[in-house]
Amino acid sequence: MKRYNAVMAITAIAATMLTLFASCSANTADVQKAIDKYCELNSKEHNAAGGSEKEATSAEKKDYEKEVDDKYFKDNKTYQIILDGMKKCDEAFAVDAQAASPAGGIATEDELLAMLSLAYKDAATSANTYCTLTDQSIAAAKTKTDTELKRIVSAKMMFEHKMEDSYKNNTERRDSILKLIEPCLKTEVQFSHNNQ
C-alpha cells in the first residue's frame, strides 16, 4: 500500500510539473508578443513627428499598457516578466535619446563608434540606435557642414551593415527590427522627398 501511495504521489507530482511546463511554454510566446508590441508602440511614439501624431501614439501606448495590466496583473510572474521587458525597451529609448542629443546636437566620433556595437544588442536597442542615427543624419543635413553630414551618414551606413549582419540567419530578429525601424524609414523617405 505504501508503495502504491508513493507511485501515485510521484505520478501526481510529474503531472503537475508537466502542466506547469506546458503553461510556461504557452505563456512565453504571449509574453514575447506583449513585449514586442510595447517596443513597437514605444518606437512609434519616439519617432512621431509631434503635435497630434505624438499625442495619438502616446494615447495608443497608454491604452496598450492598460490592456496588459488588465490581462496579466493577476499572474504576478508573467506580469513581472512583461514589465521587465517593457522597462528594457524604455531604457533603450532613454539611452538613445541621450546619444541623439549630445552637447552639439550631433554625436561625437567616440559616441558614433560606441553606437556601432549596439547593432548586435537586442532588437529594440538595435532599432533605436538606427533611428537615432537617422535623426542625426537628418539634423546634420539641415544644419551642419558637408563634413559633419558625411561623418554621420558614414556611421549610419556602417551601423546598417552590422545590423544586417546581426539578423542574417535570424528571420525573427530581422522582422522585429524592420518593424521597429519602419517609422524611422518613413521619416527618412519623407525628408528625402521634401528636400529634392
How far the N terminus sits from the C terminus, by CA atoms, comes to: 87 Å
What value does the average pLDDT take? Answer: 75
Poorly predicted regions: 1-26, 100-104
Total tally of structural domains: 1
Most strands sheet: none
Account of the protein in words:
The protein is mainly alpha-helical and 196 residues long. It has one domain (30-194). The protein contains seven helices and no strands. Helix 1 (2-47) packs antiparallel against helix 2, helix 1 (2-47) packs parallel to helix 5 (123-143) and helix 5 runs antiparallel to helix 6. The protein is globular.
Please render the helix and strand layout as text.
Blueprint: H1 2-47, H2 51-72, H3 76-100, H4 109-116, H5 123-143, H6 146-166, H7 171-194
Question: Could you give a short description of this structure?
Answer:
With 196 residues, the chain is an all-alpha fold. The protein contains 7 helices and no strands. Mean pLDDT is 75; it is low at 1-26 and 100-104.
